[in-house]
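Below is how a single chain appears once it has passed through the pipeline. First comes the sequence as given, then the structure the pipeline wrote out for it. We keep one example in the README because the format questions we get most often are answered faster by looking than by reading.
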Amino acid sequence: MTDQLDEDGFVKVERFKYKPVISSKKKNKKNSRYTFQDPDDWNIDDISINLKQRREALVNSRFYKDLLVIFDDHLVATKPHDIVCYGIGSMQKSKNAQYQFVLALLLRELLKIPGTMYIFDPVMTALDMELCKLHKIEIIAENEDGKRLADKPTLFYMPHCGRGLYSNTLSANWNEKHLPNVTIIGNRFDMYVGSQLEKDLKRECPYLIPAVDILDVVLFPKEFDNNQIFSDLSIQTFPKETIDKLEPDFWLSVPKDVQ
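Resulting structure:
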């Protein structure tokens, strides 16, 4: 039987999956204890209940209300056709991944994405993949190392990814035609460029160095759940009017031996 989704896009469930651990004395109800089911034993109903709780906590937070204003002012106008999610992690195993996944679903809804939502992370479990299919998210079959060409306006949702992965996404779109199609929600590039050795940056993430001079950055609000899940994230875009003013030599600023 096909799972049914509720109005929020989550699986309808009839009950919570808690395991009672009853005291052997059984004097009264106060002697009963309860433990949460181990995530390794979750099914699709269990993970859906969990995500609904995460969604409720997120949308009722001050952080999210502030984030909606930022999205209205700076993200809606990018009109992404697709969303590509890299590096969220395992929703079955990680609290951070659960919140980040919920925000990705909210983004698809808020932006009224007309195209496809894609996802890839090598740590995703079979249950994670089942969850993605249930939410009509296309799982990228092979690890493309972030090197996806943005033929259409594309939102790359990459919270807390490695700096090399950000650089790879830029490398795949490093020209005046495709780079304006790229919007990245991820860690600020200037955090890396301003604080780490240039020789290391040139070796591990060479495209971040010239990128910081041509992108627009809008920071996320600072606080949510002790500022860990969405800390230091931002919306980073490459305005076409900026790209159009670049000299041809700019695109050669990354040496060919590292491209």
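The CA atoms of residues 167 and 207 lie 5 Å apart.

See the next section for the split statistics.
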